[in-house]
């Protein structure tokens, strides 16, 4: 892929309609051979020349990746010959490119990093993102180059936000960043953008307030104009002061802003997929997309970052679609490179990675998670080497691999779940092997244990069986039909279906009835005859304490209470506890749970 | 944790009790919460300032009043004394409870603090390590740092009912604030779905920044933190009882926090009622991915209760004692219903209050008799009437005075010994891994059954060592058995602990010291013999020794029988036997008698285990005397189980039923009794009728019988009226009016019962019937 920057010669207003963008006038502006035209020229084009940027070359890779939704902007580039797909610039191209860059630095961009260094730095920082970074830098262009809205999307931790922010910071461009997560209301979103543009600092003197109160979109549009103007003025001032720009009129201290190309102000909206959940979110997105149109400011660079693709936003809405850039997930090779980069002394690590990365990358492709999970495994891997049992040569590596293999599966399970590291002294638990919390981890009173078991029975058994199980007079019918094979199959199907459906719901009365049945059993069986004397059959009576315990169980999320149905009347309950927990509870009070569970 | 609100309730209650004089009528009056004037700084939701003020106000009122007299002839001073005694006793108990909680909680608090400190240090190191020194772009965020996870300390409260921990988080906040951390305390009601994520953010900003922000932008916190002069201390956000929060709002809140982790040193602390694993159910995977969790365990409720038992109930100082039956009842309530220490403490307070309310002489718990008192006549008269003091015949007041002082000191002494003994049993149980709460419950049970009593008639061996009590397996015989078989190390430890605990029983102390000395000297002896007996296998010798020990055992049995129960001599006999072995062994070759050193060592230790077990057994018999047998127990020991049961067991429905069924108790009506008559309340009549009808009653039949009851009286009246006015022409219309009235009364009664919830319509299909709900 060649690293090219182009500019359109024509004069075009940002915020033009789709028809204008697609006009032949626009498409002819791309040079015929696909070779770069002078970037420096763009900067030097002088007063009032507006240069929306387009990038050639990248479009082919985009199409290769199968990304959807590149229509309006890329129609211009499609007619062009496809470039040979190479991962980096060829040496000769690179050298010519470097010259151009140097020249552009000398000529136009004062105090900034040279684009080539920038590219190198970014590539170094974000390996396996060469094409995307190139594409982005192409879109950014120079300080004053106008830009169509960008829509960057891709999975989590693929570097969307970091690349953009890093690039803009290094290029020293004016930008405002707002995450729709932290800015969870439109007001915070607007005010955060305005604060950043006006360089407003919250302090105790202004009661940590924003620069301007801005609640509505209409207010925002007005305020944004002022804020951008101020920011542009400042930036332009900086340019004019520090540069050898020919436009600077020596002798006049005041900068005539109108005669300058206005520097582009970038507005970055992160996590825009969250906006879909807001009330009126879609409308807000479409308004944000057309901010430059609404405000009449062409020097706005709008960047939207989302984890959802553009289809979720723009399909069938007739909105102006921004240019999509897809951050694909890292491949195994990319992950290998990235992880290796994190370990400076990597020979052993690289052999380790080649052994274990494949199964792990199937579980997660997030670099952060992977590196954490692999780090633990790596410690185990190199332990024999540390102890001096195995030498780190070829044979040793094979031995190490055979040693680590049994640990891989368990480590794989740990990546999917998360680890909770225990801090409290374990002595605490070990000291007291008695009691229930040795198993459960928490304490339940006797009453709530019985309640939990009865709730589980209610949720598991069909209500029609209660009489058979708990009523001594309504015993089950002795006659049993001989079951045919089909009947057995059907039962199995039913069983599976029931398990898939999850626990059933039940009314409070049924729970209490079963509770009094099984707790009556317990007071007969074992418990304190003298206590029964002291307090007439305390295990059976449904007092307010029992009802209190039910509400406690609901609070602990072990029971679920549904909202009361107007047609049904009383609310229905459901047992949320897992079978393992119930088994533990029933074991702790010697309750024969299996006797009461109906298995199909 | 002791809840301030709980204390308020009790003091209110106390007030009402003092006015009404009837504990069963205690009721809670709920006042409307008066909103404080909105101040910029939000006080933590559980800041006790408000309640303290209220409490003070309440106390002033109470301090003026005295407890109402128990009997008609009780002088007023006694009420004041009792009030003072109650205050003094409860203040002491309360202070102890607080201390227990503080000791147990502070350990966890310190761990959390250390964890936060370590995390920060680790992060700082990591940053230093990762950031290249020649970074030409210092303004660029470190990628590693932004991908860092939010550290969460999960505090497992280990009880599904978190009411023990209402004050814990507030204490944690103050503890962390002392370490100069910025702390915000968020409650579950901050995380409601209707308010969204703004509410917890707002509360957090209010608490940390100290302003009432216009918007809930995290940027406010960030800019405040940058401006803060004593920065670099972490921001800790405590979420109490995370399981009660709305999971969606909580998840959003957590993600927002994790977005700012690069700029702010945020650390989350979450209280989890059940276990740390529950967070898996609570938060979606996309959120937990941002978290790095660390588990912390609070002590379990049993551990708190153990602390309360050791620190409050087994403390000898306040002479006020809770009787065994009452304690057993409280423990069983704890075990069966809501295993929270808060309710146990509250019940303890109720018992305390009830005692000082109902016992005229209860002030003897704290008042010293050395200083001259007024109304002494009354005092001596009441003392001499007490059943426990009646065995001694007092001639004069002076005798009574002396007798009382003696009884008090005897009681005190006995309580000291009792507490020491129980403490020793618990300590031994702890070292051989037994649940102290269960052991304590069993001690109470046995004591109540009089099993420990040194009764000459009872066959000693069978009772204390029998493995079953009321059909349950017992812990104390098992404890003694384990003590006998325990290793040298354990025996040593137990003896050391006993010596520490038995300051009130010098004889036990010396005994334990002696066994310990023997053990020490013997182990050194064995060590020396090991050299001599090297390579010698003496199975026959071992057998000899074993038979020797068996003979000691036999002797012990005999001596027990011959002593008729008093096992005073047991230990000395055993020791004599042991000495005899030693004495015999001396002239012989050591190796010949002892066999292999390891075996010999084992037997020697078992010997000491036996000695300590028998010592413990002896002490149990001697000192675990029920308080009910002591003089003056009526004044010092609360034994009324039924009254405390009435206060604690909530059966509101039963109360309502009872009151509707027999309202005569309140009305003091003598004409009505169990038979239905028209003079009763309409609802009472109807309830009786429904009860007679069974579960399902036809509405029309009910009406008929209802009107029949009323008419029976009315017809009698009418007869009288007729007699008065001969030939009344308005009879028919009067009858109509009566019918309408009866109908109206019936409807009113039925709807009253429906409202109370005792009656309901039977259903759509049987619309003519009503159903009784009991």
TrEMBL record, chain A:
Residues 444-597 form the Origin recognition complex subunit 5 C-terminal domain. Residues 42-60 have a biased composition (Polar residues). Its main location: nucleus. It comes from the Eukaryota. GO terms for biological process: DNA replication initiation. Residues 125-294 form the Orc1-like AAA ATPase domain. It holds the Pfam family ORC5_C. Residues 1-114, 473-492 are annotated as: Disordered. Residues 349-401 form the ORC5 lid domain. It is found in: Nucleus. InterPro entries: AAA_16, ORC5, ORC5_C, ORC5_lid, P-loop_NTPase. SUPFAM superfamilies: P-loop containing nucleoside triphosphate hydrolases. Keywords: ATP-binding, Chloroplast, DNA replication, Nucleotide-binding, Nucleus, Plastid. One of its GO terms (molecular function) is DNA replication origin binding. One of its GO terms (cellular component) is nuclear origin of replication recognition complex. Residues 1-11, 95-105 have a biased composition (Basic and acidic residues). Belongs to the ORC5 family. This is Origin recognition complex subunit 5. It comes from Ceratopteris richardii.
Automatic annotation (TrEMBL), chain B:
Residues 1-16 have a biased composition (Basic and acidic residues). It is found in: Nucleus. It comes from the Eukaryota. InterPro entries: ORC3, ORC3_N, ORC_WH_C. The keyword Metal-binding does not apply. Residues 53-364 form the Origin recognition complex subunit 3 N-terminal domain. CDD domains: Orc3 (cd20704). Pfam families: ORC3_N, WHD_ORC. The keyword Nucleotide-binding does not apply. Keywords: DNA replication, DNA-binding, Nucleus. GO terms for cellular component: DNA replication preinitiation complex; nuclear origin of replication recognition complex; nuclear pre-replicative complex. GO terms for molecular function: DNA replication origin binding. Residues 653-769 form the Origin recognition complex subunit 3 winged helix C-terminal domain. Belongs to the ORC3 family. This is Origin recognition complex subunit 3. It comes from Ceratopteris richardii (Triangle waterfern).
């Amino acid at each position: 892929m060649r690293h090219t920057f182009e500019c359109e010669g024509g004069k075009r207003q940002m915020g033009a309609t789709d028809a204008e963008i697609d006009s032949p006038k626009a498409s002819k502006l791309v040079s015929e051979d696909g070779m770069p035209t002078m970037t420096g020229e763009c900067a030097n084009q002088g007063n009032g020349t507006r240069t929306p940027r387009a990038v050639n070359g990248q479009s082919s890779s985009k199409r290769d990746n199968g990304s959807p939704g590149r229509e309006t902007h890329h129609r211009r580039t499609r007619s062009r010959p496809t470039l040979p797909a190479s991962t980096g610039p060829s040496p000769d191209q690179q050298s010519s490119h470097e010259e151009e860059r140097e020249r552009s630095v000398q000529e136009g961009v004062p105090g900034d990093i040279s684009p080539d260094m920038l590219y190198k730095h970014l590539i170094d920082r974000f390996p396996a993102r060469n094409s995307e970074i190139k594409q982005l830098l192409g879109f950014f262009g120079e300080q004053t180059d106008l830009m169509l809205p960008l829509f960057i999307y891709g999975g989590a931790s693929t570097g969307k936000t970091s690349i953009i922010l890093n690039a803009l910071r290094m290029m020293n461009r004016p930008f405002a960043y707002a995450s729709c997560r932290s800015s969870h209301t439109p007001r915070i979103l607007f005010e955060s953008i305005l604060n950043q543009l006006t360089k407003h600092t919250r302090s105790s003197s202004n009661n940590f307030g924003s620069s301007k109160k801005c609640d509505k979109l209409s207010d925002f549009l007005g305020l944004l104009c002022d804020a951008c103007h101020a920011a542009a003025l400042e930036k332009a001032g900086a340019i004019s002061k520090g540069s050898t720009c020919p436009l600077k009129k020596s002798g006049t201290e005041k900068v005539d802003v109108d005669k300058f190309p206005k520097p582009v102000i970038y507005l970055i909206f992160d996590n825009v997929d969250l906006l879909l959940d807001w009330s009126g979110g879609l409308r807000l997105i479409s308004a944000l997309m057309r901010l430059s149109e609404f405000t009449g400011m062409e020097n706005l660079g709008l960047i939207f970052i989302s984890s959802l693709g553009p289809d979720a936003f723009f399909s069938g809405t007739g909105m102006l679609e921004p240019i999509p850039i897809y951050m694909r997930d890292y491949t195994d090779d990319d992950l290998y490179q990235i992880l290796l980069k994190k370990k400076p002394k990597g020979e052993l690590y690289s052999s380790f990675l080649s052994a274990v990365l494949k199964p792990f990358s199937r579980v997660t492709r997030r670099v952060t998670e992977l590196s954490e999970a692999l780090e633990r495994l790596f410690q185990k891997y190199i332990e024999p080497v540390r102890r001096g049992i195995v030498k780190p040569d070829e044979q040793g590596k094979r031995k190490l691999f055979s040693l680590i293999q049994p640990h891989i599966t368990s480590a794989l399970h740990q990546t999917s779940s998360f680890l909770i590291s225990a801090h409290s002294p374990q002595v605490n638990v070990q000291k007291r092997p008695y009691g229930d919390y040795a198993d459960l981890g928490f304490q339940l009173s006797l009453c709530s244990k019985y309640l939990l078991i009865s709730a589980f029975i209610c949720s598991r058994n069909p209500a029609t069986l209660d009489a058979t199980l708990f009523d001594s007079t309504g015993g089950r019918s002795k006659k049993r039909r001989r079951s045919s094979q089909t009947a057995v199959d059907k039962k199995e199907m039913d069983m599976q279906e029931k398990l898939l459906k999850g626990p059933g719901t039940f009314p409070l009365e049924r729970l209490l009835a079963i509770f009094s049945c099984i707790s009556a059993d317990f007071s007969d069986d074992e418990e304190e005859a003298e206590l029964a004397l002291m307090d007439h059959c305390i295990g059976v009576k449904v007092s307010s304490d029992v009802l209190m315990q039910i509400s406690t169980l609901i609070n602990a999320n072990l029971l679920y209470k549904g909202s009361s149905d107007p047609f049904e009347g009383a609310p229905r309950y459901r047992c949320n506890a897992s079978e393992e927990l119930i088994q533990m509870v029933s074991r702790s009070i010697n309750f024969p749970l299996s006797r009461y569970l109906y298995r199909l | 944790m002791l809840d301030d609100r709980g204390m308020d309730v009790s003091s209110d209650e106390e007030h009402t009790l003092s006015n009404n004089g009837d504990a069963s009528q205690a009721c809670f009056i709920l006042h409307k919460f008066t909103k404080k004037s909105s101040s910029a700084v939000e006080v933590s939701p559980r800041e006790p300032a408000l309640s303290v003020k209220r409490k003070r106000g309440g106390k002033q009122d109470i301090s003026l009043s005295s407890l109402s007299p128990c009997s008609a002839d009780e002088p007023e001073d006694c009420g004041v004394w009792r009030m003072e005694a109650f205050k003094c006793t409860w203040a002491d108990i309360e202070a102890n409870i607080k201390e227990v909680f503080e000791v147990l909680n502070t350990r966890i608090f310190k761990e959390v603090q250390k964890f936060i400190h370590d995390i920060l240090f680790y992060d700082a190191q990591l940053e230093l390590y990762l950031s290249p020194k020649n970074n030409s772009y210092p303004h660029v965020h470190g990628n590693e740092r932004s991908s860092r996870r939010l550290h969460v300390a999960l505090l497992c409260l280990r009880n599904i009912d978190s009411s023990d921990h209402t004050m814990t988080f507030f204490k944690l906040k103050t503890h962390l604030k002392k370490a100069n951390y910025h702390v915000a305390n968020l409650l579950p009601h901050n995380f409601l779905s209707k308010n969204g994520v703004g509410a917890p953010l707002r509360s957090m900003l209010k608490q940390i920044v100290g302003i009432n922000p216009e918007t809930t932008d995290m940027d406010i916190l960030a800019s405040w933190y940058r401006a803060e002069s004593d920065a670099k201390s972490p921001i800790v956000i405590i979420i109490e009882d995370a399981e009660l929060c709305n999971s969606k709002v909580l998840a959003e809140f957590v993600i927002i926090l994790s977005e700012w982790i690069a700029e702010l040193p945020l650390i989350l602390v979450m209280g989890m009622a059940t276990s740390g694993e529950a967070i898996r159910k609570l938060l979606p995977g996309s959120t937990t991915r941002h978290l790095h969790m660390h588990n912390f365990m609070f002590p379990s409720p049993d551990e708190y209760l153990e602390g309360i038992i050791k620190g409050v109930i087994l403390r000898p100082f306040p002479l006020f004692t809770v009787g065994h039956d009452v304690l057993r009842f409280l423990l069983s309530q704890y075990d069966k219903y809501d295993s929270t220490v808060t309710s146990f403490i509250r019940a303890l307070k109720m018992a305390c209050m009830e005692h000082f309310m109902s016992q005229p002489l209860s002030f003897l718990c704290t008042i010293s008799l050395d200083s001259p008192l007024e109304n002494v006549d009354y005092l001596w008269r009441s003392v001499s009437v007490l059943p426990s003091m009646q065995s001694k015949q007092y001639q004069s007041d002076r005798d009574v005075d002396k007798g009382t002082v003696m009884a008090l000191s005897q009681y005190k002494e006995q309580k000291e010994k009792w507490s020491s003994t129980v403490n020793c049993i618990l300590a031994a149980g702890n070292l051989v891994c037994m649940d102290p709460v269960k052991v304590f419950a069993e001690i109470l049970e046995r004591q109540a059954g009089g099993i420990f009593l040194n009764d000459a008639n009872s066959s000693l061996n069978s009772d204390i060592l029998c493995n079953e009590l009321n059909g349950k397996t017992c812990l104390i015989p098992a404890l003694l058995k384990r003590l006998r078989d325990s290793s040298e190390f354990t025996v040593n430890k137990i003896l050391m602990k006993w010596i520490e605990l038995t300051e009130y029983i010098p004889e036990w102390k010396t005994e334990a010291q002696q066994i310990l000395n023997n053990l020490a000297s013997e182990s050194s002896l064995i060590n020396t013999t090991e050299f001599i007996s090297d390579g010698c296998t003496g199975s026959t010798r071992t057998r000899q020794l074993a038979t020797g020990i068996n003979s000691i055992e036999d002797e012990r049995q005999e001596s027990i029988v011959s002593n008729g129960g008093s096992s005073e001599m047991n230990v000395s006999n055993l020791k004599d036997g042991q000495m005899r072995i030693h004495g015999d062994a001396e002239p012989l070759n050591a190796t010949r008698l002892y066999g292999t050193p390891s075996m010999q060592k084992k037997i020697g230790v078992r010997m000491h285990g036996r000695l300590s077990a028998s010592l413990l057994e002896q002490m149990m018999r001697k000192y675990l005397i029920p308080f009910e047998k002591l003089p003056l127990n009526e004044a010092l020991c609360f034994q009324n189980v039924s009254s405390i049961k009435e206060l604690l067991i909530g059966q509101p429905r039963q109360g309502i039923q009872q009151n509707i069924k027999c309202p005569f108790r309140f009305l003091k009506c003598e004409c009505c009794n169990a038979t239905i008559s028209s003079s009763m309340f309409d609802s009472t009549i109807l309830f009786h009728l429904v009860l007679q009808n069974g579960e399902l009653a036809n509405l029309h039949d009910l009406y008929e019988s209802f009107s029949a009851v009323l008419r029976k009286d009315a017809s009698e009246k009418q007869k009288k009226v007729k007699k008065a006015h001969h030939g009344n022409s308005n009879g028919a219309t009067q009858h109509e009016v009566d019918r309408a009235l009866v109908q109206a009364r019936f409807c009113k009664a039925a709807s009253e019962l429906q409202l109370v919830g005792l009656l309901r319509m039977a259903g759509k299909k049987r619309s003519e019937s009503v159903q009784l709900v009991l």
